[in-house]
Write a structure and sequence with these properties.
4 helices; about 25% helix; alpha+beta; 7-stranded mixed β-sheet; about 160 residues
């Protein structure tokens, strides 16, 4: 049984001299899965007994093969599922990773692309993901969360 959803904006530093500091990982849904062909950020269910931040790290690892170096709590987005007539909550995180060349997508996706934030916003299917990218890039505009780093950066419980 899942107890909620995590959306994770995965970011890596752009090459030196680029106008925009970050690149955003976008994933395309594979044929035969829900929303075939839609571009999205990493997301998935929080499992029973799992902390939301641990779910975010797990989903990044499962969907991309990447390890999260820094994780930030961004926002929460409610959404309605007509199939089950329920309101769900997506907890939104930003994950900073290194080694963007090491992405290994799983069976849910058939393609990935590192995009500028503005290109990611144009590509992503879900409007709530557009906002999540904007929030993440604004929060990390100086490389970290600045004066609010101590509140929004989520420590890794495994360390």
């Amino acid at each position: 049984m899942d107890v909620g959803i995590v959306d994770v904006v995965v970011l890596t530093a752009a090459a030196a001299g680029r106008r925009e500091r970050w690149r955003v990982l976008t994933l395309r849904r594979a044929v035969g899965v829900r929303c075939t062909g839609a571009w999205e950020v990493v997301h998935g269910s929080i499992e029973a007994g799992e902390r939301p931040s641990d779910a975010a790290r797990r989903e990044v690892r499962e969907e991309t093969g990447l390890e999260v170096e820094r994780l930030y709590s961004i926002t929460a987005n409610p959404f309605y599922l007509h199939q089950t007539d329920t309101v769900q909550m997506a907890l939104v995180f930003a994950a900073v990773v290194s080694h963007p060349e090491q992405v290994q997508i799983g069976i849910e996706h058939d393609a990935f692309a590192w995009r500028t934030p503005s290109a990611a916003i144009k590509t992503l299917a879900w409007p709530r993901e557009h906002d999540a990218v904007r929030y993440a890039v604004h929060l990390l505009r100086e490389g970290d969360a600045g004066a609010v780093e101590d509140v929004l950066r989520v420590p890794d419980a495994r360390r």
